[in-house]
Description:
This protein has one helix spanning 6-14; strands at residues 34-46, 49-50, 56-59, 62-72, 76-92, 95-96, 100-113, 120-135, 139-140, 144-145, 148-164, 168-179, 182-184, 187-189, 193-204. With 205 residues, the protein is mainly beta.
Amino acid sequence: MFKNLKAVAIAGSLVLAPIMNTSSIAEEEEKFKGVYVMTGLGLTNTTDINISTGGKIKFEYGGLWDVGVGYDFGDIRAEISYDETTQNIDTVQGFDAATQVKSRSIFATAYYDFRSAKKWQPYVGVGIGSSEIEASTAYLGNITLSAGDTNIRSAILKLGVTYSFENSDVFFERSGQGFDDFTIGSFQYTGIGVGSWTLGFRQRF
């Protein structure tokens, strides 16, 4: 159980309102049930980190890729996925930094597909998992950010829309990933969240 469900709350706070309004009538199709694989590429942005002595740690925009396998039950999907994000720290208390931060996560995620028998399918998903956070180089200034890594629990919340073809799907989604607080070296990172926009592809079997 997450501490005060903090990771879940952070993930939820990063997700925007539903991405697309699919009010137009779409062609009815038979509901697919079975195995699928997916992959996606995206753009990420990590929330600023407040420093107790003043100032913030600010991140540049970064990249994301993910792969996964799932089973579609009709309206509900279950999925196991791996994702990796890469971002650089832009500034620490206003000073330039040259530290790259990566997260590698494995998630078990459940989805609900609205209008699952139609071409356009909005969906919502929530997942829990484990993440490895790695800082590649140290930063030395008024504070010290050590190089190193740690493993923590995390959660993810997704809102997206799918366009369905005969045996495949294209999807676009907004996600928010939240992490438990963690420490690398002597610095404790709190309230960390990563928001992402992802364009992806599913192949059904």
